[in-house]
Amino acid sequence: MSFWDFFVALVLGIVEGLTEFAPVSSTGHMILVDDLLLHSKELFPASVANSFKVVIQLGSILAVVIVFKDRFLDMFGLRRKSGGAAKGGPRLKLAQVIVGLIPAGVIGVLFEDYIDTYLFSIKTVLIGLVVGGVLMIVADRFRPRVPKADTVDKVTYKQAFGIGLFQCLGMWPGFSRSGSTISGGVLLGLSHRAASDFTFIMAVPIMMGASVISLYKHWDSFTAEALPFFAVGFVSAFIFALISIRFFLKLIQRIKLVPFAIYRFVLAALIALVYF
């Protein structure tokens, strides 16, 4: 593994970790950083590049598990005391997360090949960045004055399913899974923090499932030569996702969604200037 290989893996892992769960589109950032600066597609076969993307996503997923470990332990009944809800009060249930996963799970199974074949392009990412930004502004503008659920423990099954429908928008490259689900949650009456918490918790099983399927398809790319490249990307994605998630959960309560929408418009303009 050359120094440049190490540098590429490190930078892509950092970009993944910083942007995967912020509502700014990790895909858009990967396009800019990789295509303009790193040119990883020229360094590695397509199968290795695809597997690498999955590996660094797994690093980000592990960061979510660490941040929300008490929540996951509660949902699986592995803790006697809940750190997320008052004693005797409502508590987020595993069944509610499953309900939220149903829409995207169905759409993913039915249209995965179509999405991979036809929707991954610069133009589709630009559309996703702009339309997703508009949705975020709409969510902040038309959200209920008083949230119906100020914590993730008060999310209802109806709200969970509605957020799951919004999550389907995140399958469009550039739209951002977190951007669509947080916006949907806010429109459905969750506070920004509750919508963010539910978004991150729901991301673990759906991203894990997609990652396992992808790893199975590209398992032959895990060679001894590629493993150090994967390891560097995984570790850097994990560390920076851990930092990013903790910072974002504090920030979203103060600045809401509009600043992230404006950032998306700037990113879209930059990509358009570079490629068109």
UniProtKB/TrEMBL annotation:
<feature type="transmembrane region" description="Helical">
    <location>
        <begin position="256"/>
        <end position="275"/>
    </location>
</feature>
<feature type="transmembrane region" description="Helical">
    <location>
        <begin position="117"/>
        <end position="138"/>
    </location>
</feature>
<dbReference type="GO" id="GO:0071555">
    <property type="term" value="P:cell wall organization"/>
</dbReference>
<feature type="transmembrane region" description="Helical">
    <location>
        <begin position="198"/>
        <end position="216"/>
    </location>
</feature>
<keyword id="KW-0378">Hydrolase</keyword>
<keyword id="KW-0812">Transmembrane</keyword>
<keyword id="KW-0961">Cell wall biogenesis/degradation</keyword>
<dbReference type="GO" id="GO:0008360">
    <property type="term" value="P:regulation of cell shape"/>
</dbReference>
<comment type="function">
    <text>Catalyzes the dephosphorylation of undecaprenyl diphosphate (UPP). Confers resistance to bacitracin.</text>
</comment>
<keyword id="KW-1133">Transmembrane helix</keyword>
<dbReference type="Pfam" id="PF02673">
    <property type="entry name" value="BacA"/>
</dbReference>
<feature type="transmembrane region" description="Helical">
    <location>
        <begin position="51"/>
        <end position="73"/>
    </location>
</feature>
<protein>
    <recommendedName>
        <fullName>Undecaprenyl-diphosphatase</fullName>
        <ecNumber>3.6.1.27</ecNumber>
    </recommendedName>
</protein>
<dbReference type="GO" id="GO:0050380">
    <property type="term" value="F:undecaprenyl-diphosphatase activity"/>
</dbReference>
<keyword id="KW-1003">Cell membrane</keyword>
<dbReference type="GO" id="GO:0009252">
    <property type="term" value="P:peptidoglycan biosynthetic process"/>
</dbReference>
<keyword id="KW-0046">Antibiotic resistance</keyword>
<dbReference type="InterPro" id="IPR003824">
    <property type="entry name" value="UppP"/>
</dbReference>
<feature type="transmembrane region" description="Helical">
    <location>
        <begin position="94"/>
        <end position="111"/>
    </location>
</feature>
<feature type="transmembrane region" description="Helical">
    <location>
        <begin position="228"/>
        <end position="249"/>
    </location>
</feature>
<dbReference type="GO" id="GO:0046677">
    <property type="term" value="P:response to antibiotic"/>
</dbReference>
<keyword id="KW-0133">Cell shape</keyword>
<keyword id="KW-0472">Membrane</keyword>
<comment type="similarity">
    <text>Belongs to the UppP family.</text>
</comment>
<keyword id="KW-0573">Peptidoglycan synthesis</keyword>
<dbReference type="GO" id="GO:0005886">
    <property type="term" value="C:plasma membrane"/>
</dbReference>
